[in-house]
C-alpha cells in the first residue's frame, strides 16, 4: 500500500504530464506481454510520445477539472500515452494495435483528452486514423500533379495528330 505522500507525489507528476501535453490517450493494456510493452514503449519514444502506467484512482484524481466534459470509463489496467503533437499519441497507439492485431496483443484505446475536452474511444480512433503531415502533403502533390500530367499527354497527342496530317 502506498503512503499518502507517495500518492500525492504520483498525482502531482500525473497533473504535470497532463498539463504539458496537447493530447492524451487512455489505454487499456490488459493482456499485453512485457516483451510487447517494451516494443510499444520504444516505438512511442521514437515518435516523441510518452507512456505512463498508473492506478485508476490516482489518475482520476489527477484528471479532475483538467478538461471539459465527463471522464470516459477507464476499464481494465490503464496507462496514458501523451505528446506535444495533438495527433501523435493516438496515431502511434493505433499503429501499434494495427501491426500487432493478429498476435493477440491486448491494447485498447478507451478515450482521451483532445483540445481541452474529454472524448470517447470512437472519437479518439478517428483522430488516430488521420495520416501524418508528410503523407497528406504527398497525397496533395500527387493530386496536383495528376491533372497537369493528363494535360501534357493530351497536348502531346494533339501535336502528334497535327504532325501526322501534314
> Helical element count?
6
Number of individual domains: 2
Percent strand: 15-25%
Strand order of the largest sheet: 2-3-1-4-5
Rg for CA atoms: 23 Å
Q: By helix and strand content, what is the structural category? A: alpha+beta
Distance between the termini: 94 Å
Helicity level:
40-55%
Unreliable runs, pLDDT <50, ≥5 residues?
none
Overall pLDDT score: 83
CATH architecture of the largest domain: 2-Layer Sandwich
Write the CATH homologous superfamily of the largest domain.
Answer: Ribosomal protein L10, N-terminal RNA-binding domain
Oligomeric nature of the chains:
single chain
The number of strands is 5
Q: Sheet bearing the most strands, described?
A: 5 strands, antiparallel
Categorize the overall geometry: elongated
Key phrases:
alpha+beta; Alpha-Beta Plaits; five-stranded antiparallel sheet; 5 strands; 16% strand; Ribosomal_uL10-like_sf; ribonucleoprotein; large ribosomal subunit rRNA binding; ribosomal protein; RNA-binding
Give the gist of this structure.
Forms part of the ribosomal stalk, playing a central role in the interaction of the ribosome with GTP-bound translation factors. The protein has helices at residues 4-19, 34-46, 56-63, 88-99, 121-128, 133-165; strands at residues 23-28, 50-53, 78-83, 108-114, 117-120.
Amino acid at each position: 500500500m502506498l503512503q499518502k505522500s507517495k500518492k500525492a507525489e504520483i498525482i502531482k507528476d500525473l497533473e504535470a504530464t497532463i498539463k504539458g501535453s496537447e493530447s492524451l490517450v487512455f489505454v487499456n493494456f490488459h493482456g499485453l506481454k512485457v516483451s510487447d510493452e517494451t516494443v510499444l514503449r520504444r516505438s512511442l519514444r521514437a515518435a516523441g510520445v510518452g507512456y505512463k502506467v498508473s492506478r485508476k484512482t490516482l489518475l482520476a484524481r489527477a484528471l479532475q477539472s483538467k478538461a471539459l466534459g465527463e471522464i470516459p470509463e477507464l476499464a481494465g489496467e490503464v496507462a496514458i500515452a501523451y505528446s506535444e503533437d495533438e495527433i501523435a499519441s493516438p496515431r502511434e497507439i493505433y499503429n501499434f494495435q494495427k501491426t500487432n492485431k493478429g498476435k493477440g496483443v491486448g491494447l485498447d484505446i478507451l478515450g482521451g483528452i483532445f483540445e481541452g475536452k474529454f472524448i470517447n474511444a470512437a472519437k479518439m480512433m478517428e483522430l488516430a486514423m488521420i495520416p501524418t503531415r508528410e503523407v497528406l502533403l504527398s497525397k496533395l502533390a500527387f493530386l496536383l500533379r495528376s491533372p497537369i500530367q493528363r494535360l501534357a499527354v493530351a497536348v502531346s497527342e494533339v501535336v502528334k495528330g497535327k504532325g501526322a496530317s501534314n
